[in-house]
Amino acid sequence: MATAGTSLVFRQLFEKESSTYTYLLADKDTKEAVLIDPVVDTAERDAKLVSELGLKLVYVINTHCHADHITGTGKLKTLVPGCKSVISKASSAKADILLEEGQKVTFGKFSLEVRTTPGHTNGCVTYVLLDESIRMAFTGDTLLVRGCGRTDFQEGNPATLYDSVWGKIFTLPDDTLLFPAHDYKGQTMTTVGEEKRHNPRLTQTKEKFVEIMNNLGLAYPKQIDRAVPANMMCGLQD
Ligand SMILES: N[C@@H](CCC(=O)N[C@@H](CSS)C(=O)NCC(=O)O)C(=O)O
Ligand SMILES: [Fe+2]
């Protein structure tokens, strides 16, 4: 296991049209890098940063099949030949590597452990950085800062999401830093302890949570009809 304090490269990047966070993680010593949840519109920016930092992009990883934007995965595979696409098996999407519970994605001395966290979609996963000095998890749309992913499409299910968060994310130590796939209010990150105390949805009983989620009344994402089919194929439609 590595010690992030000395050799983890970490960047949180933002795509403003979909309010998506993309994360770059790398091992400073071996230069191996991963990108989590890139967006097609900012794929060139991300590839340039990888190059400028002298990193070798090995994996382009998604937390789930996104409904609101087209993933940058396919474009990054053409911009950075050799990197591999990664998503959960349960997403049913096409990728080079299909992950299941407990599997690891390794870059240099670091690994991301897969925790299946269905509920927003049935293929959602959370990636937990295994490290001695810093605890970090990438929650996708399962858990947002003081919120959570909606459950009204893509086989979403509020009771399942509630169990995923309490069983797979809130069981991490309270000081675990949590990084979501989106934020719509300018917030960047949170912690397990903070969300267990202050998340307005997840601090409710499961029954109340289900009621809240079934009455959000959100408009569908503007790009859903083109994004979902494209993202089933790494963001590239044949
Ligand atoms: N207005 C946006 C879509 C916003 C949205 O639905 N966000 C999703 C995550 S992307 S699948 C969500 O789960 N939101 C939860 C919430 O409480 O806001 C667009 O048109 O793209
Ligand atoms: Fe989503």
Write the layout of secondary structure elements.
Elements: H1 4-7, E1 8-15, E2 20-27, E3 32-36, H2 43-52, E4 56-61, H3 73-79, E5 84-88, E6 97-99, E7 104-107, E8 110-116, E9 125-130, E10 136-140, E11 143-144, E12 147-148, H4 158-169, E13 177-180, E14 190-191, H5 192-198, H6 206-213, H7 224-231
Parallel strand pairs: 3-4, 4-5, 5-6, 10-13
Antiparallel strand pairs: 1-2, 2-3, 7-8, 8-9, 9-10, 11-12, 13-14
Helix pairs in contact: 2-3, 4-6
The structure holds the ligand N[C@@H](CCC(=O)N[C@@H](CSS)C(=O)NCC(=O)O)C(=O)O and fe (ii) ion.
The ligand N[C@@H](CCC(=O)N[C@@H](CSS)C(=O)NCC(=O)O)C(=O)O binds near residues 141, 147, 149, 218 and 222.
CATH-scheme architecture: 4-Layer Sandwich
Question: What is the CATH class name?
Answer: Alpha Beta
Number of strands: 14
Helix content: 10-25%
CATH superfamily: Ribonuclease Z/Hydroxyacylglutathione hydrolase-like
Total individual domains: 1
CA radius of gyration: 17 Å
β-strand amount: 25-35%
CATH topology: Metallo-beta-lactamase, Chain A
Pfam families: Lactamase_B
Domain Metallo-beta-lactamase: 19-182
Subunit structure: Homodimer. Monomer. Interacts with TST. May interact with RELA.
EC number: 1.13.11.18
